[in-house]
Amino acid sequence: MSANRRSNPDDAPFELKPSPGKGWGAFATKRIERGSLILKEKALFVIQKSSVDITGLDVFRAVMELSPTELVQSLLIQNNESEEPKGLLETLSENYFTSALKSIGFYTLGSRFNHSCIPNARVPSDPRPFIELLATKKIEAGEEIYFCYFPDLKAQTRHERHESLGFVCSCKALDLDGQRQSSQSTLIVDPKLKAAAETGNIPLMSRMVLHLLMVVFLEEEGLLDDWAVKVVEQGAVTPVFWCQSEYNYEIADLALAQDTWLEKLQVAFQIYGRTDPADQMIARMIQQASQKYAAGQAMPPWT
């Protein structure tokens, strides 16, 4: 093993090597089929605190408990090929995974995979003592393997994504806008709807239609993987159970009974913009969820 390279497991379908402008990266050594397991790795160490509460002393104590071999592995992560070596606390802050509620794990292989807002792999979000990386689409030999560091980025603008990531992402998902969007942005088709989204006041039926529209767009662009379907589908299905208008329920139920996503959307457009007695209750729930999100908790997928 070289002075700055972490060796791969013998059966790994990828290799680690420099990625232009990104330090190290992971590249497929053979075709990886959609749904395949790319990596399963146990944490080098876990710190039982949330990321914002961790101090340099916490990191030092964790590192001092490592074996000599593990210590060498942790130090290798400080070398990112294109940058000067960083301190352990800074290195940890850029390479951790949330492994459970209020705890983070440090993974020597997983931390070498780069970010993309349009990834070809994902890390399941459920708490585990290890991380798994799964292919969300077919990955050809030689292709770099990416996952999205923060799933919530899917609904953020370029400015917001860069603030969350702490670095500049240049992937094509951000090509449309170089500025922070607002309800006055010329790129927002419906500024009233944008303003309503900022306060959680989108009508329940419109929320369902917008989620279906998102699925259709993802499918059209070839970005609709099993994980995206699972998440976005909840946003289309949940409103049916919440709506209190008999007419809204009948049309929404009919829409979901259609065979294709486009057909579901076409039927659902009949209730786009219609109010429902449940709208105010849902708006309050969204506002409460937003407050929890600001405190570090995940937003419900149906929002």
TrEMBL record:
- Report domain SET positions: 12-150
SUPFAM superfamilies assigned: SET domain
Q: Which InterPro entries match?
A: SET_dom, SET_dom_sf, SET_domain_protein
Q: Which PROSITE patterns match?
A: SET
Q: What is this protein called?
A: SET domain
Upper taxonomic lineage: Eukaryota, Fungi, Dikarya, Ascomycota, Pezizomycotina
